[in-house]
Amino acid sequence: MTKPRILLIIGGGIAAYKSIELVRLLRKAGYVVRCVITRAGEQFVTPLTLAALSENKVYTNLFDLKDEVEMGHIQLSREADLVVVAPATADLLAKMAAGIADDLATTLLLATDKPVLAAPAMNVRMWLHPATQRNVATLRGDGVTVMAPDDGEMACGEFGPGRLPEPAAIKDAIDAALAAGPAITAMTGQPDFAPANHRPLYGRRILITAGPTHEPIDPVRYIANRSSGKQGFAIAAAAAEAGAEVLLVAGPVDLPTPPGVIRVDVETAVEMADEVRQGLPVDAAIMVAAVADWRAADTSVQKIKKDGSGAVPPLALTENPDILAGVAKSAERPTLLIGFAAETNDVIAHAEAKLAKKGCDWIVANDVSADPMGGESNRVHIVSKDGIDSWDRLPKAAVARKLMEKIADELDARSPRQSD
Ligand code: C5P
Predict the structure, then answer these.
(1) Gap from CA of 354 to ligand 1 centroid (Å)
(2) Ligand 1 in contact with 324 (CB < 6 A)?
(3) Torsion of Cα atoms, 348 then 185 then 107 then 87, to 10°
(4) Domain residue ranges of the chain, discontinuous segments joined by +
(5) Cis (ω within 30 of 0) for the bond into 281?
(6) Residue 363 CA: which ligand 1 atom is closest?
């Protein structure tokens, strides 16, 4: 099997040093890596380091390349399976969104017919600036995968979103983008061509629940579960990327909001049920949240204290509303209603039973016996009245994208879009 070929474009920013680790990870995984570095990028990493690590020539200058062979830059941009921009600076994102081609990197990005993945890195104010957000939305609309930057302390001393995602996370996103490639190819029938404006969910409204819920016992204690929210957030990101208007009702998680997603944070199941009700009507609802089954029957307004006698305080529980079953019965039931089920045994049988019990259209079942919640990949089975669709283990972002293709097809079959 031929190894995936990555064209890595390195923009200018302090985070450029992380591209060295990314090249190392990609080479370790057996990928063929070709690096292109912008003039600003050269201030932070040297072409020599990149050449040594990638074991390939590093390209810096548009005119060198033109001298090399006729239309060398076109060839370079199309030779890869995936074009990755890391770090994608505010300037590079702006040029990409506007279609400016004034150096080798931007010329390749405009000339390529391959999927493009951008990992942004910039100062928090620059990331949050409406101009950058507008550019990100434009690029996503054009079919570019723009990762969310990490949150945290920045080299400049400020705090917030804007840090380059860790090289391991970029590698995961690259794996996901490569895994999603064939699905896009299959849809368009054009090999190796990721169409601009591939927005199969354009004009659709999608509601997603994600994360755990926290059910307070007293002001400092709560009942919770191990849900990380990663799969639900990846689904929200993929839905926005596919052009949908996305409402994400999120339990307490430490994850950045995917670009283009409207997020409402909640803590408890009752709050989540409320927000979901207010979010209807939608075309599809995907309930990924691991909602606590029970909450404390009475919450204490003060911290419950040990009284020294060794007596344990009673903890009476009461059942939480089943949000998914409630939406299924409501007058505003979405055209497509999807539940998730994490099981440790008899995965399919439990999912089939849950499908009937909850009144939804699909249950996305995953086996969490070997890989508990919080991992980076998922092996899922889509259980519906039409049968079982079992997928290989995939990164969560790839599961999300594949699910969006399936949802788009199903919605188009059940209720064609106005514009269709
Ligand atoms: O019953 P169980 O928790 O296994 O069902 C899982 C599915 O039901 C998930 O889609 C979850 O989001 C949803 N659910 C819900 N409200 C609850 C419990 C589960 O929406 N109270």
Answers:
(1) 9
(2) yes
(3) 10
(4) 5-185, 199-414
(5) yes
(6) 10
Q: What is the pLDDT of residues 185-207, one digit of tens each?
A: 322 323 222 333 468 998 899 99
Closest C-alpha to ligand 1, atom 5: 341
The DSSP letter of residue 290 is: B
Ligand 1 pocket residue status of 347, Cβ below 6 Å? no
CB 295 within 8 Å of CB 215: yes
CATH 3.90.230.10 correct for 5-185: no
* Ligand 1 in reach of 289 Cβ (< 6 A): yes
Quote the ligand 1 centre to 341 CA distance (angstroms): 7
Pocket test for ligand 1, best of 223, 293, 322 (most atoms within 8 A of CB): 322
Residue 259, Cβ neighbours under 10 Å: how many?
19
Domains 5-185 and 199-414 share a fold: yes
pTM for the whole thing? 0.60
Predicted confidence (pLDDT) per residue in 249-275, tens digit:
999 999 988 877 888 999 999 999 999
The residue ranking higher by pLDDT, 177 or 23, is: 23
How far, in Å, CA of 111 to CA of 304, rounded?
A: 65
- 408 vs 402: CA distance, rounded Å: 10
Which secondary-structure segment (H or E) carries 144?
A: none
Question: Could you tell me if 372 and 207 are in contact, meaning their C-beta atoms sit under 8 angstroms apart?
Answer: no
Rounded distance, CA 105 to CA 108, Å? 5
Task: Using DSSP, state whether 317 is helix, strand or coil.
Answer: strand
Pick 199-414's CATH classification: 3.40.50.10420, 3.20.20.140, 3.40.50.10300, 2.40.40.10: 3.40.50.10300
Cis check for the bond before 372: say yes or no (omega within 30 of 0).
Answer: no
Residue 169 CA to ligand 1 centre (angstroms): 29
Residues known to be catalytic: 156
One-character DSSP codes across 187-213: HH--TT---TT--TTTT-EEEEEESB-
Dist. CA 357 → ligand 1 center (Å): 11
Q: In this structure, which residue's CA is closest to atom 6 in ligand 1?
A: 341
Rounded-to-integer distance, Cα 102 and Cα 114, Å: 20
* Ligand 1 and 366: CB distance under 6 A: no
